[in-house]
Design goal:
Strand content: 15-25%
Number of strands: 25
CATH class of one domain: Alpha Beta
Number of helices: 22
Largest sheet: 5 strands, mixed
Distance between the termini: 130 Å
Structural class: alpha+beta
Shape: elongated
Radius of gyration: 39 Å
CATH architecture of one domain: 3-Layer(aba) Sandwich
CATH superfamily of one domain: DD-peptidase/beta-lactamase superfamily
């Protein structure tokens, strides 16, 4: 038995007491951990919410995460804080805001430091990893961010502002080989209305609007529609139409504002080649993150092909300034780089005349420097005015283009056609090099149609002139289909195809023009004597664009060497390839001179004793079956033989009597000779 004292002593045994303290401590520590973990979770939620509002630009919700005392002590209201974010981030159009390296560090009880980095995109480009620091305190039971202006941009304080200066890059111009503008930047006028200047009373306003409608050629309903837009106020300028500065007449009610726009001096004459620019679309923005709303980019032609070089790079700076507007700190700066000028081999005069001589017929004319490969003219007709695409196309004008059966938006110089009889020059060249054809080789042909034998069924090759004894020269002069069909059959498919493969069939030309490769046939072999025969005189399944035809025919001015085309003016040597022998090229040149000189020649209309022109005409008939009359495309190959100054290839679709390619280009060829004589006499003034 223990005494009372002993029992008391036993109750307070120090070992038990120590154990009690240890257990109590463990329990308290656990409770502290739970409380601390809960607190950290709350502050983490506050940090995440704040970051999310910044990334999604949900500034109207900032009141839920900011400590009120922090901004009121700096003489800001919550509305002013929200407006400041909105003016800066939305006003400058800052996008793609992304936070990274987010970290929370405990400073003391109920106080944490949040650090993070922001990356975002401004109209000047990307800003990477801008470092931020913020305090998060527990206030009234909630963790809130302690705000100050440095949370907009580091370095901001007090009533600092952000200044944004944007410098638009000047788009590079497209020029011809003399430096004449083909796509230039010019000053225009926005014609518009300031509503309060329309006059007093309904009658006076209506009369003024009627005068404006007549002067600007805009329907009155369209004007009223623009005046009724939600944003319009009495003292605000409402733009109606862009006009050339010289046409900005003073008319009561019309006001003008200056604007710089793209202008195309040759208008329809070079529209398909040069193209035009237009506003970026959502699709454009999705494809290219470097673009911004309101940007103008190339939409067609060379404007599109060389858009990156022409567009340049906009510049500017984003600055932190004090209340007085004095610069304190640079946030971002980008140097403005104007676009590059692009100089072409195109000659404005030749381009304009090539287009004009098509006289609105559906077709194309290509004029080429046969020695250097430079394209002097690449014209397509009918066409459209690219200036209207930039200045604004009315619905009536758009409908007129779309409903035109001749399809004015097609670049016919890049479309594949059966070349017709101009291609006989290639067949003759292959035959000569294969020692099958020779200039004096006679074929006795009777009648206007011929077939090899009965295996051809109802099919036969036809010709226009019934000449019995035909040699190669006569066959070219009279453009005899039967002669060349028989020559190809004698050569055989293998020899003929091997000869064709020395040209540019199947090759992609190094030109900024969308164009399918020239094609001999749908399949790698003819598997048909009829198709072989038809191909020999430029029909069958041949598909060659006017540009590709011009390139192939350069062999006759270069002793059998083919010269590839180019559009950019530079000093490098042209790309070439050997296609036929020199002797064959010379023989064909002599024969093609006779096609012009001989009174029976299909190109005799072009004869001019002042100069020696070589030419070959061609027609390609479009019909579904033999015996029926189909539409015909007319072709003309013509080139200078004295100085090899130019080569012309012209096409007229579905031509009618009086509008063949030969007839349309007669005066143009005379002009070309005069122009080159004049140009060569003034080389010191122009250069090339």
């Amino acid at each position: 038995m223990y005494s009372r004292v002993e029992r008391k002593k036993r109750k307070i045994n120090p070992y038990y007491f120590l154990l009690f303290l240890i257990l109590a401590g463990i329990g308290g520590f656990s409770l502290f951990q739970i409380m601390d973990k809960k607190g950290h979770s709350e502050v983490q939620d506050a940090a995440n919410t704040f970051i999310q509002l910044l990334e999604y630009k949900e500034y109207e919700k900032l009141g839920n995460v900011l400590e009120k005392q922090s901004y009121t002590s700096l003489d800001y209201t919550l509305e002013e804080v929200i407006a400041k974010y909105d003016r800066i981030f939305n006003g400058i159009n800052i996008t793609n805001i992304h936070a990274s390296k987010i970290a929370l560090e405990k400073v003391k009880n109920y106080e944490y430091e949040l650090s993070y980095q922001l990356s975002f995109t401004t109209p000047l480009g990307k800003v990477e990893n801008m470092k931020y620091h913020a305090k998060i305190n527990k206030t009234d039971g909630h963790y809130l961010v302690k705000w100050d202006p440095s949370l907009i941009f580091p370095g901001m304080e007090g009533k600092d502002k952000v200044a944004f200066q944007y410098m638009k890059a000047e788009r590079g111009e497209i020029k011809d080989h003399y430096g004449n503008g083909l796509a230039v930047n010019e000053d225009f006028k926005w014609a518009g209305i300031v509503p309060k200047e329309l006059g007093q009373g309904n009658d006076e306003k209506e009369n003024t609007l009627q005068r404006i409608s007549q002067q600007l050629d805009i329907p009155i309903d369209e004007i009223n529609q623009k005046l009724n837009q939600r944003w319009v106020k009495d003292d605000l300028f409402v733009p109606l139409k862009i006009v050339e500065s010289s046409n900005a007449e003073i008319v009561p009610g019309i006001s003008y504002q200056n604007i710089k726009l793209r202008y195309y001096p040759l208008k329809e004459a070079a529209a398909h080649l040069i193209g035009y620019i237009g506003n970026v679309t959502k699709e454009d923005l999705d494809k290219n993150p470097n673009l911004a709303e309101g940007d103008m980019i190339g939409k067609a032609g060379l404007e599109k092909a060389y858009d990156k070089e022409l567009r340049g790079k906009d510049g500017g700076e984003i600055l932190i300034v004090n209340e007085q507007g004095d610069k304190k700190q640079e946030v971002q700066k980008a140097e403005k780089m104007d676009g590059e000028d692009i100089q072409l081999t195109i000659d404005s005069y030749i381009q304009l005349e090539a287009f004009n001589h098509l006289k609105g017929n559906a077709g194309s004319t290509v004029v080429m420097n046969p020695k250097e490969g430079g394209l002097y003219a690449v014209a397509s007709s009918p066409s459209f005015d690219p200036n209207k695409m930039v200045q604004g196309l009315s619905q009536q004008e758009y409908d007129q283009y779309v409903n035109d059966e001749n399809k004015p938006f097609i670049s016919r110089f890049a479309v594949g056609y059966a070349p017709g009889s101009t291609f006989k020059t290639i067949t003759a060249s292959i035959g000569l090099d294969a020692n099958v054809t020779y200039p004096d080789k006679l074929r006795n042909i009777n009648g206007l149609s011929w077939q090899k034998d009965g295996t051809w069924g109802g099919y036969s090759v036809t010709r226009v002139s019934d000449v019995q004894n035909v040699d190669m020269r006569k066959a070219l002069i009279y453009s005899d289909n039967i002669y060349f069909a028989q020559e190809a059959l004698e050569m055989g498919e293998k020899t003929f195809r091997n000869g064709l493969n020395q040209f540019i069939f199947g090759e992609e030309l190094d030109l900024p023009i969308a164009m399918n490769a020239a094609k001999i046939s749908k399949h790698s072999t003819f598997d048909s004597e009829i198709l072989l025969a038809d191909t020999a005189y430029g029909q069958g399944e041949l598909l060659i664009s006017p540009i590709q035809q011009a390139v192939m025919y350069t062999v006759f001015q270069n002793e059998g060497t083919l010269v590839y085309p180019r559009l950019l003016k530079d000093q490098s040597s042209p790309k070439t390839k050997s296609a036929i022998t020199s002797s064959t090229a010379k023989e064909l040149k002599k024969s093609l001179i006779e096609v012009v000189r001989d009174p029976n020649g299909t190109a005799h209309l072009l004869y001019n004793p002042k100069f020696t022109l070589a030419a070959k005409t061609g027609t390609a008939e479009l019909k579904k079956k033999q015996g029926e009359k189909g539409n015909e495309n007319s072709f003309l190959l013509a080139f200078d033989t004295e100085h090899d100054e130019f080569l012309l290839l012209s096409l007229v679709e579905k031509y009618k009597p009086g509008s063949s390619a030969t007839q349309l280009n007669k005066s143009f060829l005379d002009q070309l000779y005069s122009y080159f004589q004049m140009r060569n006499g003034n080389t010191s003034a122009h250069g090339d």
